[in-house]
Amino acid sequence: HGIVHFYTIKDASIFYYDMQGNYAELYNIMIKFSAAFKFETKEEFLYPKFEISTSIPVMSPANVKSS
Fold it and tell me: In 10 A of CB 32, how many CB atoms?
């Protein structure tokens, strides 16, 4: 077993929903991703869902320098 730590709940949540139910194989080792459990109660942690922006910011022509 291993543990992945994140600085924010948002980062952990995004990782969890991206990897939920997935697994990875690396050098004949299978890595399965699952939710964290609360330390004292052993209840599964419920991750909040966050909107993820996939848009790319567009620069206005005034900010673009020609060479």
Answer: 10
